[in-house]
Amino acid sequence: MIDNDDLLYRVDRHYLxxxxxxxxxxxxxxxxxxxxxxxxxxxIIGRAIVHVPLSFMSFAIMIAITYVITAKVTxxxxxxxxxxxxxxxxxxDLTAPRPPRRGQTVAVRIPAALRAPRSAQGGxxxxxxSF
Length: 131
Known about the structure:
This protein is mainly α. Helices cover about 45% and strands about 5% of the residues. A two-stranded antiparallel ribbon has the order 1-2. The chain is flat and about 80 Å long. The chain starts with 5 loop residues before the first helix and ends in a 36-residue tail after the last helix. The mean pLDDT is about 80.
């Protein structure tokens, strides 16, 4: 009989909350750390850079933005595709070379190894060489 590792994935990987006080939604363990890091980043950006006042409404908006971003990111994260590979794929997609747009001027640089020496530009190719 061939046995696979499906039993490992049947374990309930959701945080239900403290005993007797469960959350209204199921939160995966992987999303807890990511959500905390995102909220901390949003809080620092909001307070230190954008100067958002500290109020209940701003705090609720930060939590809502954190929830939406975490839900979108963890939709693609699973045991076969960890969070690091999702970020690496996004970075590769953002920094990939793009084809030129229509009408865009393209300049091609010739590597230094393929350029002719300066002394051979005006005369014959074998001028100044001894054999």
